[in-house]
Write a structure and sequence with these properties.
Chain A is an all-alpha fold. Chain A has six helices and no strands. Chain A has two domains: 89 residues, Cytochrome C biogenesis protein (Helicase, Ruva Protein, domain 3, Orthogonal Bundle), CATH 1.10.8; 45 residues. Chain A is rod-shaped. In chain B, strand 8 and strand 9 form a beta hairpin. The C terminus of chain B is likely disordered. The chains are: A mainly alpha (145), B alpha+beta (663).
Amino acid sequence: MRLIAAFLMCFGTAVMAVQPGEVLVDPALEARARVISQELRCTVCQNESIDESSAPVARDLRLLVRERLLEGESNQEVLDYIVARYGEFVLMRPVASGANLILWLAGPVVFLVAIGGLLLSRRKREDAEPLTAQEQARLDALLKE
Amino acid sequence: MRVRVILLTMIVELGHFALILAFAISLFQTVVPLAGAYRRMPGWMAAAEPAATLQLILIAFSFAALTYAFVTSDFSLRLVALNSHTDKPMLYKVTGVWGNHEGSLLLWVLILALFGAMAAWWGKGLTDTLRARVLGVQGAIGAAFLAFLIFTSNPFLRLVQPPLNGQDLNPLLQDPGLAFHPPFLYLGYVGLSLTFSFAVAALLEGRVDAAWGRWVRPWKLAAWVFLTIGIALGSWWAYYELGWGGFWFWDPVENASLMPWLLSVALLHSAIVVEKRESLKAWTILLAILAFGFCLIGAFIVRSGVLTSVHAFANDPERGTYLLMITAFFMGGALALFAWRAPIMQAKGVFGVASRETALIANNILLAVSCVVVFVGTIWPLLAELFMDRKLSVGPPFFNIAFTPFMVGIALILPIGSVLPWKRAKLGRVVWNLRYLAVLCVALGALVWAMQTGRTALGPIGATLGAWMVAGAAFELWQRAAGTPARLLRLPGADWGKAVAHAGMGITTFGVAGLLAWQVEDIRVAQIGESFAVERYEITLLDVREIEGPNYFSTMAWLEVSENGRVLTTLTPERRIYPVAAMPTTEAGIRNGFTRDIYLTIGEPQTNGGWAVRSWIKPFANWIWAGCIIMAIGGVFSLGDRRLRVAAGAKAARKRSVGVPAE
């Protein structure tokens, strides 16, 4: 029940996710911070990224992201740093390796299989189509009638 | 007088009783017509219609009884006590009926019965056996859900000690956009139950032909129109109510409604091939089965709580198990029947590589694959936890990358495919005819690119694709009318419907790309009386005050927006607290515009006396939902086509189906 209450709290107050005090002075760095924030899931309001969540945890994470950026880390380094501490669960975009390849490749593979199947079935149909000389002659005769 | 009072206090019990009776009737509606169709007994088959009508009357009464309990705030009813309050405005007392698990399920079975009854009344042109089978299958779906409702989620349970007042409806649901979001969605889902019934009946019958394509036409169209409106309403609500102007979150529950929508679009197109060319029969039947299957899976996702979602509706494992059983039963049964009967569905029309048929197959592949992407992405966290013991998330960044390419593919081929002739076409000629359009659209994209220096490619691509679809639709209409404006108005409704719906798709595409690419955001602390600039607008925080609403307290801000020194508007964003539900909500102040929305929210008071203010300029936001509504209007045009009304289709079909053997 408490969990649900926390959940509902998240949902309603999301308005003031990023507080004015958190915003970095350098707009380029701030933009990068926002991009990273959208890649990270809030551990309390699980349906929201830390960019949208108003939970205190999300705020801490946002500040952490900005801290790391100020220290000169790349986007990936910041993400790695946070995943190492909070686990894979916070990553909104699963890494494309190992079993996750099934997730990433499901769409493209199904697409290619569908196209391939379609081409194969067409070829089969076309193979069946050509008429023998005899049939052609009969057809011509019939058409003449 | 006395009798009347007694009757009124009994309404809830009568409604409960009617619901149980409806369950019995639905069992009758399943068994008798199906057996009758199997044994060719006209009397048994004819029993389907009165049964469907009676079922509708009983469920409607039951629904009215529950509504009565909500309107009169009868807190001796558990459901009313949990979800209503005397202070709640009347509109939300009524919509509160379906603002909870039990009531929404009652609405679901009501709509199920409504569709069943309509199919019975207007299906007079169907062959007797097909009609009996459609209604029988529909009855079986009704029976499954009525049993679910009565045995696991009964809305009519009384409380021994009624509370003095209720616990109020979730304040987020006290909103016109969300109040009508579920009924539209259910009309869509349940409409797809009817196309499912048609598919299963056709399999039982052993015949899928052009007539079948014609019969399902109105139902698949209606289902799609409602689903489109339902999803648009939900998205629009999220935009203005959640307080940061997002319109789609790739949340499991949203995905649950998107998957049936994608498949219903595919079905819409593939059934045309069945109707016009007698091809793609097996695939169309499969789509009809799967589209409803995804509605059931959606119901499972929403109501079982297995996936993390914003719509924590009913986290009850028992209900989840039951819904999974319903899904397994209907999908397993229908797919087994499909596997058994698929060989009888032979394609008649042959077609060349370049043809409308091929274009529609491409459309279907892209839509089905995008549905696969959404499905795998939605259940992946569940699979990862079950089989690999890994807790991971699949969020918007994944879907944006994995889903978008297929949508771009659809947008690219749409205008070409829709002007390709049936059977055999010269692709070169069609593409040549479209050359000016293509050049124009690419030029537009380039212009947008040049104007927006230094931003993402998303905006120009969206503009190009949007213009391509809208111009393609206009081009097709013009071509159909052979370039004569007078003929344009005399074109059949189906032609207009197609063009309008495709144009709507283009408008939505442009709106989504425009909003994501060009949104401007400003976060700051403002003192009362302070002005600040956001893009070309000047915003002044005039005042912040505490206000009391009918069932909430509010902190309201007055923000004046001006452009070039001229006052545009004063917006009043709020932060509300609903004391009964102990829940805060935000009400954004929004100034809608044709090319942009100004979207303001007010936040926490700051220690130095100022207020946190967030401002957004959201370009082309309205185009997203306007495009959806235009799509739906296209569907309505198509529904209104005289040639293709239910009765007309039936007459034509009877003529055609004479002499075609079943097996």
